[in-house]
DNA sequence: TCAAAAGTGTTGTCCGTACACCCATGA
DNA sequence: TCATGGGTGTACGGACAACACTTTTGA
């Protein structure tokens, strides 16, 4: 290898698609931009990646600066590089996605950079116009979580730690956008043996309170080396 | 939007992981590099993406220049951006993969750029040392095609147009790295009803000649909107 | 006592798996 | 006639899908 080769750096951005679940619907976390291009538009949390940070680190930093969220594990989704996607030139973006427990965060979102005015959850079914190609990125993310959720229990990441079977079913119904049979759903979920039944019940409802469950990650890891199928 | 923003361009590379199947084993297409860094090493076909071409177009061009292969449909795999992956600085690479009919090409590979000395198929199980993080990229690609092949009939892309059921089974065995039951495999494949039985038979074998089949893409598209499962 | 959601079983069908022998062909 | 791979069927168990009523609770 030679040492007198020119030094180069990749210029590119990273974007975050963060999903949450509340009130029976899927939501995505958007920021209101305070900088050109697309000043005052809504868009995904995203920014330029520094030369000395990995892409995985960069999305974490960007998400923290844009929303105040910390320690979120994101997975890479896809890299978008359409010639027209960015008005300042062909800048590619590496998109990441994550699913998280919305109720633990609520609207306690605090941007710490001047690039962002505020961060807010938006229902997937009623998104505003978005900056860049962010609409497209979000659509690709949904396809991804649909595929993903069929093979691994990531849906639990969207629920509170303690949840009822009905909440779990509603979540799957929201992701698949179709109704599921209550008895079959419960039978199947319980058969996997990855839920721990708690002694507690739901509180504050004006009807029969449902049992609460927890996702039992230890059991899950023990039992399933390979794959599950949650899609039917 | 403002027009006096600085103009920027992403600098990055794209790499191609091309799989083929012959003699009962999976192969990957490598090039011998004729340029620094990693001059004289084997690596994946890959190079810098131009500012005015999409990433999808770039991998096609690069593959053509490096190997002479034309019209290959590749899908994006993942974007690699480790700080140490490239000796000239942190240069990210967008990796693509494809599977193709090796016997239609054979060793008729003709690089048309001085950056490459030659292109050659290498068995996946006996790879030489590779430039950059290309070993890692290939490993990720295999995981990807294993997942992919369970849900869609892309395995046919690796076989000749006309093939025997045994060849098809050997291909799945190579991808999954495990033996399958002949009767069950045939039953399952034929039940999907995506194969067209031909009137022809295998030639040039010193034992009973097997029937030849074709993948029937029309039937496939008609019957299956969603998914198949070829993995068991 | 009413409204609302929780909770619960059976049956038929399909799919996957395990398993062993005869057949056709060319050398 | 032999060696080689081609080609075939059955029986069991597990998973999925369809389907409706009773129970519990708070208001």
From TrEMBL, chains A, B:
PROSITE patterns: NUDIX. Coiled coil: none annotated. Residues 11-146 form the Nudix hydrolase domain. Transmembrane segments: none annotated. InterPro entries: NUDIX_hydrolase-like_dom_sf, NUDIX_hydrolase_dom, WH-like_DNA-bd_sf, WH_DNA-bd_sf, WHD_NrtR. This is 8-oxo-dGTP diphosphatase. It comes from Olivibacter domesticus (Pseudosphingobacterium domesticum).
């Amino acid at each position: 290898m030679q040492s007198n080769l020119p030094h180069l750096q990749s210029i590119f951005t990273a974007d975050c698609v963060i999903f949450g679940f509340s009130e029976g619907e899927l939501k995505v976390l958007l920021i209101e931009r305070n900088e050109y291009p697309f000043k005052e538009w809504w868009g995904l949390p995203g920014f330029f990646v520094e030369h000395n940070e990995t892409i995985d680190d960069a999305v974490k930093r960007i998400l923290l600066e844009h929303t105040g969220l910390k320690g979120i594990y994101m997975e890479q989704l896809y890299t978008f590089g359409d010639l027209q996607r960015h008005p300042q030139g062909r800048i590619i973006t590496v998109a990441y996605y994550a699913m998280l427990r919305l109720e633990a965060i609520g609207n306690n979102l605090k941007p710490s950079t001047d690039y962002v005015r505020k961060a807010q959850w938006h229902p997937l079914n009623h998104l505003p116009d978005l900056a860049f190609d962010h609409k497209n990125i979000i659509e690709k993310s949904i396809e991804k979580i649909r595929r993903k959720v069929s093979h691994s229990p990531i849906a639990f990441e969207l629920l509170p730690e303690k949840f009822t079977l009905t909440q779990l079913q509603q979540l799957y119904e929201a992701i698949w956008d179709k109704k599921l049979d209550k008895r079959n759903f419960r039978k199947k979920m319980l058969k996997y043996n990855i839920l721990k039944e708690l002694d507690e019940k739901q509180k504050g409802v004006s009807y029969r309170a449902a049992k609460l469950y927890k996702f039992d990650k230890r059991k899950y890891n023990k039992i399933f080396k390979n794959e599950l199928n949650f899609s039917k």
